[in-house]
């Protein structure tokens, strides 16, 4: 009688995702540490290269070096590739190569793809991936052309084209890396705070990349017929619009007597909209983040926690998680047992997952804050909180303390960026996940909450 041989490697998606991103980061770090990757030709210390590779693959944007000033064209190109892989996810990239090589994509690969893009149904997932790849190419190409035309006028044709491509990919993938160090180190897009074309192009790319692949597919199939959209798409679009315009108004109120006091109407509107969009994991800034009022910094941190949408290039707890949590509070206040939105009732398991994600996010951020505060007590708690939330939410905004972090603090931020990209819950599942089913349940007993 022939016994069944247990597969040697039986990886779940959580484990595969963690291992895959870790390998990509390590390869990127090795390439960025090479002498050819730096302008000086002296190479980059491996820890700093690892930090940069994690930030790029995690589409975060926190940097210990100005990208333009420190890295050569080769180094910048490596960062660009890492951003693209990190934004789309290595499973989508791997599927792209399988499709190009005309290889068969089995059920196991399709189930991994389903989890990678966070789609509800496994059917049609390969078609969805094809649409994602084509859509990404189209959006990034359009953005690159518009930005290249603008940049070429002041940088020259070749630098203008490269900058157009780099910033388009960085914006679409919500990465926040920039090459504006040619004018002023660590200045991001502050030079273009009043430029409507660049602001609108970057904001559009960030929003499109941040709403998620599932929403793309819904819009592609149903066009402008909002009633036919899936519930997920309705929630994402509604929440995104609410956060953008509500936050823009709030930023203007907070900054009208601060950073916007001497600006015109056009620049004030652009800056308020940009500052409302960028904290939700984009990482670019057109105004000095460190000079924001306390109210604006608090609002920015709240938006960094929320982040973008599920199945997108963005990070954070996600818009759906945020809105479900709000709905649960409303439901509890109204003594209702169901979560209802847009005429539909949500599953009870969704709320459990939402609370788990938020709990893991808060625990990870708090541990990071405590450790950095212990290691470097001279840093202001508000700056540490901003930095940690930026890393955990894969945002990339900073009050300027990234370069002041010592070795241990940078390692903590590196770990937080890694967890933020693949999800803290996914990291925990990759470590402790068990498929053993529980056959016997413990006796039920009630406790007092609140």
TrEMBL record:
Keyword Ribonucleoprotein: no
Intracellular or extracellular location(s): Cell membrane
Transmembrane listed as a keyword: yes
Membrane topology of this protein: Multi-pass membrane protein
UniProt main location, coarse: membrane
GO molecular function, one term: hydrolase activity
EC numbers on record: 3.6.3.14
Keywords recorded for this protein, A-Z: Cell membrane, Hydrolase, Ion transport, Membrane, Potassium, Potassium transport, Transmembrane, Transmembrane helix, Transport
Residues in the signal sequence: none
Transmembrane segment boundaries: 12-34, 46-65, 77-101, 128-149, 196-215, 235-254, 302-333, 354-375, 411-432
Superkingdom, taxonomy of origin: Bacteria
GO cellular component terms attached to this protein's record: plasma membrane
Name of the featured protein: Potassium uptake protein, TrkH family
Organism encoding this protein: Alkaliphilus metalliredigens (strain QYMF)
Lineage: Bacteria, Bacillati, Bacillota, Clostridia, Peptostreptococcales
């Amino acid at each position: 009688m022939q016994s069944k041989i247990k597969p040697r490697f039986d990886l779940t998606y959580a484990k595969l995702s963690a291992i895959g991103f870790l390998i990509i980061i390590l390869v990127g770090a090795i390439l960025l540490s090479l002498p050819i990757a730096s302008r000086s030709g002296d190479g980059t210390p491996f820890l700093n290269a690892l930090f940069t590779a994690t930030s790029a693959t995690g589409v975060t944007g926190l940097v210990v070096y100005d990208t333009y000033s420190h890295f050569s064209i080769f180094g910048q190109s490596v960062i660009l590739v890492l951003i693209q892989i990190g934004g789309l996810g290595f499973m989508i990239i791997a599927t792209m190569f399988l499709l190009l090589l005309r290889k068969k994509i089995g059920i196991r690969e399709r189930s991994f793809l389903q989890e990678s893009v966070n789609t509800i149904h496994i059917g049609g997932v390969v078609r969805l991936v094809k649409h994602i790849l084509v859509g990404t190419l189209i959006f990034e190409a359009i953005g690159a052309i518009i930005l290249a035309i603008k940049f070429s006028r002041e940088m020259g044709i070749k630098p203008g084209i490269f900058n157009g491509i780099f910033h388009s990919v960085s914006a679409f993938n919500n990465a926040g890396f920039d090459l504006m160090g040619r004018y002023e180190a660590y200045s991001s897009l502050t030079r273009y705070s009043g430029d409507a074309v660049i602001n609108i192009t970057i904001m559009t790319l960030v929003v499109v990349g941040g709403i998620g692949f599932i929403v793309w597919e819904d819009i592609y199939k149903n066009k402008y017929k909002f009633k036919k959209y899936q519930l997920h798409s309705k929630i994402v679009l509604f929440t995104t619009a609410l956060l953008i315009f509500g936050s823009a108004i709030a930023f203007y109120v907070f900054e009208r007597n601060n950073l916007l006091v001497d600006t015109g109407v056009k620049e004030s509107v652009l800056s308020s909209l940009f500052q409302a969009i960028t904290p939700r994991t984009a990482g670019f800034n057109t105004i000095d983040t460190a000079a924001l009022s306390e109210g604006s910094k608090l609002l920015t941190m709240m938006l960094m926690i929320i982040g973008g949408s599920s199945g997108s290039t963005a990070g954070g707890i996600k818009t759906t998680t945020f809105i479900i949590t709000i709905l649960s509070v409303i439901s509890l206040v109204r003594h209702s047992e169901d979560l209802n939105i847009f005429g539909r009732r949500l599953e009870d398991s969704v709320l459990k997952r939402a609370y788990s994600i938020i709990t893991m996010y808060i625990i990870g951020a708090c541990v990071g804050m405590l450790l950095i505060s212990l290691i470097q007590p001279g840093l202001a708690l508000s700056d540490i909180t901003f930095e940690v939330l930026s890393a955990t939410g894969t945002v990339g905004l900073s009050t300027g303390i990234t370069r002041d972090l010592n070795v241990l603090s940078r390692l903590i931020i590196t770990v937080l960026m890694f967890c933020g990209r693949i999800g803290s819950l996914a990291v925990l599942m990759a470590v402790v996940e068990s498929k053993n089913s529980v056959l016997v349940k413990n006796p039920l007993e009630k406790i007092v909450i609140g």
